[in-house]
Design a protein that fits this description.
The complex is a heterodimer.
Chain A (H helix, E strand, L loop, with lengths): L9 E4 L3 H13 L6 E4 L2 H8 L15 E4 L8 H9 L9 E5 L4 H9 L4 E4 L4 H18 L10
Parallel strand pairs in A: 1-2, 1-3, 3-4, 4-5
Chain B lengths: L1 H11 L1 H25 L5 H34 L6 H41 L3 E6 L4 E4 L1 H7 L3 H4 L4 H5 L7 H11 L1 E9 L5 E12 L5 E10 L1 H60 L5 H32 L4 E5 H11 L9 E5 L4 E5 H18 L6 E8 L5 E8 L31 H11 L4 E5 L5 E8 L2
Parallel strand pairs in B: 7-9
Antiparallel strand pairs in B: 1-2, 1-5, 3-4, 4-5, 6-8, 9-10, 10-12, 11-12
Classes of the chains: A alpha/beta, B alpha+beta.
Chain lengths: ~150, ~475
């Protein structure tokens, strides 16, 4: 596939290993997962974004999209979002909230913080796979990422 | 009535007043000249005697005194032939004095009657009435006061009212007196102690009495016992407070429950997604290598997961209705029914249904919630007429004679046993097995919750295999 060369890097922030596996499986199914970085909590996500801790030596470019769960250990999703959007060199990263929560106040808070999309994880696996596929295709392939993001 | 009027006229007119003086002196002069002319004897003592008899003894005594005076005079002082003018003078005097005496007696009797009548009238009332002067000394005490406070008039009159009754005022006594002096009246609730030592609450009204110089002299107090009423008021107040507390507690409990239901539904979605997801992945991997039975098990797991997903979604929607604010507007029910019918059109494909939609009024309420009510009721009607070759579904409004309007959805479907009518509107309650008619058992609970939030009622009528009618009512305004 020619588009393979242009795949963006995806930062998946998700604490539930089963959800991580299902998401990766869905991305794999459409060959969208050649570079997915998984952060298991908000702190790890921030470490990656700021190239701190175990991500100290990562390449300096930003991910093409960040898929962000809201319910996270240590630093929760909204807090991560707030920090990203207030940091000059991170604020252009497209952030998609990927969560189980249909709670209106979560949605309102996310959009107010400038999230690019808000996706509720469907219970049905087909729908889940479709959602992940479409997200992957749109953000890692179709969407032109901001300058400074990596494209392989 | 003529007499007082005459007196009034004399008193008011200077001409009459001075005329009367001139007239009486003229009469006295005439009398004096007459006495001198006839060289009359001293009659003063007899006149005095007649006057005393007439004044204190009445007419009979006056006549007797007159006769005795005449006889005495004729016997001891003058010859009978000369005594005629004396007799006339005695008679006139006796007549005058007894007239005065009669008038006095009548006035006294009238006054007495009036006083007795007033006193007994004041004793007839249930109210307690007493009069005290500005130093709180009681001067009048009626029977009502005796009944209420336990002190008799003899006990009370002359006593200091505040000390006797241990009165507690709702305001400083200076303020009470100030208002009394300013307006002449005061009213308020007083707490007092009776002769038996019990505490009573009375509603008292004060009226101030002033003398001719407008100086305050006495206070008339009318009061009645409101102890019972105060007790009941206190009881009602306590009950209301308790009710308010309970309803606050219920409200917060309800909120907690809603939050709980939401969080449960919410947290259940993740493991469910995993069950469905991994089962499907497993199915993909092994369906070609395992037997048919194993494949069927996988399908059943997926079916159940899907069904549970629907249950959770419905429960979430149900919980959201309980928490959402209603946004009320006036809208056309006819239009809303049309929209609901469009929404369910997938369910009626391939079905033979005769629709009867009656005239529907405008409705004041939350449009999207009411739409959910109609969709639920119509979906139910469609679902439970599935076994009919020709289904009939009627949507109408019975205006009734009350302030409520009643909307109904009637079908000729499988109906239900009225014995279970109370179960219809409960969450997860179903009257049919899910093989025959699918569903989560939340639809009618949602309907009920929405209608209740609009202050209305829901009810249903049904006959097994004879159709069902679902009603909901709502206020017309």
């Amino acid at each position: 596939m020619e588009s393979m060369n242009k795949l963006g890097r995806i930062l998946l922030v998700e604490d539930d290993p089963k959800d991580v596996e299902l998401t990766l499986t869905a991305l794999e199914e459409y060959n969208l997962a050649n570079e997915v970085i998984v952060a298991r909590d908000g702190e790890e996500a921030l470490e990656y974004l700021y190239s701190r801790g175990k991500f100290k030596t990562r390449s300096s470019d930003n991910p093409a999209v960040m898929l962000l769960d809201l319910k996270l250990p240590k630093v929760d999703g909204l807090e991560v979002l707030k920090q990203v959007k207030s940091e000059e060199k991170l604020r252009m990263i497209p952030v998609v909230v990927l969560t189980s929560s249909k709670e209106e106040k979560d949605m309102v808070a996310s959009y107010k913080l400038g999230v690019s999309a808000y996706v509720v994880k469907p219970v049905d696996f087909h729908e889940f796979v479709n959602a992940i596929k479409e997200l992957g295709i749109f953000w890692a392939v179709i969407n032109e990422p901001p300058p400074g993001s990596v494209r392989k | 009535m003529a007499r007082p009027k005459l007196q009034l006229r004399i008193a008011q007119s200077p001409v009459l007043r001075y005329g009367l003086a001139v007239l009486s002196v003229s009469v006295a002069l005439g009398g004096a000249l007459l006495i001198e002319r006839f060289q009359l004897r001293n009659i003063t003592l007899f006149l005095f005697a007649i006057a005393v008899a007439a004044w204190y003894g009445g007419t009979g005594a006056a006549v007797l005194a007159l006769l005795l005076s005449c006889i005495s005079f004729a016997h001891f002082f003058v010859e009978p032939s000369h005594s005629i003018p004396y007799f006339i003078l005695f008679a006139l005097f006796a007549w005058l004095v007894s007239r005065f005496s009669a008038v006095r007696r009548r006035v006294e009797a009238e006054l007495l009657a009036e006083r007795t009548q007033q006193g007994s009238l004041l004793n007839l009332t249930h109210d307690s009435i007493f009069v005290r002067d500005m130093d709180f000394i009681i001067s009048y005490w009626n029977l009502g006061a005796q009944e209420l406070y336990g002190w008799s008039a003899e006990d009370a009159i002359g006593k200091h009212s505040r000390q006797l009754l241990q009165t507690m005022f709702p305001a400083p006594i200076e303020d009470v007196h100030a208002e009394l002096l300013r307006t002449g009246r005061w009213e308020g609730e007083l707490q007092r102690t009776t002769a038996h030592g019990t505490t009573v609450v009375v509603a008292a009204r004060y009226a101030l009495r002033r003398d001719e110089q407008a100086r305050p002299v006495a206070i008339l107090e009318t009061s009645n016992d409101i102890t019972e009423r105060k007790h009941r008021e206190q009881e009602i107040e306590n009950l209301n407070l308790e009710l308010a507390n309970r309803s606050t507690a219920l409200e917060s409990m309800n909120k907690e429950l809603e939050a709980f239901a939401y969080s449960v539904s919410h947290d259940l979605r993740a493991p469910l997604r995993h069950i469905a997801g991994f089962t499907e992945l497993l199915q993909k991997k092994i369906s070609s290598v395992v037997d048919e039975k194993s494949n069927r098990y996988l399908v059943m797991i997926l079916d159940s997961a899907k069904r549970m997903g629907n249950l959770i979604d419905d429960l979430l929607a149900f919980s959201r209705i309980g928490r959402a604010e209603t946004q009320k507007t006036l809208f056309s029910l006819t239009q809303l029914v049309r929209e609901a019918l469009t929404e369910v059109r997938q369910d009626v494909e391939g079905r033979n249904i005769v629709w009867k939609v009656g005239a529907l009024p405008d409705f004041y309420g939350d449009r999207s919630m009411l739409r959910l009510v109609l969709v639920n009721l119509i979906s139910n009607a469609i679902k439970f007429t599935r076994t009919r070759t020709q289904a009939e579904i009627e949507i109408g409004c019975s205006d009734g004679n009350s302030d409520d309007l009643v909307v109904f959805v009637r079908d000729n479907g499988v109906g239900f046993d009225m014995k279970y009518v109370n179960k219809l509107f409960g969450v997860f309650q179903r009257l049919h097995d899910s093989d025959a008619f699918e569903g989560t058992g939340i639809g009618l609970a949602t309907v009920q919750r929405i209608v209740h939030r609009h202050g209305g009622k829901v009810w249903a009528e049904g006959v097994v295999d004879g159709g069902a009618t679902f009603y909901f009512s709502a206020s017309k305004t």
